[in-house]
Amino acid sequence: MAQQLDTSKGWCCDGRTWSEHAQEGGKCCQPQGKQIDDLPADGQRKARERLAQASR
Ligand SMILES: [Zn+2]
Question: How far is ligand 1, taken at its centre, from the CA of residue 25, in Å?
Answer without folding.
Answer: 8
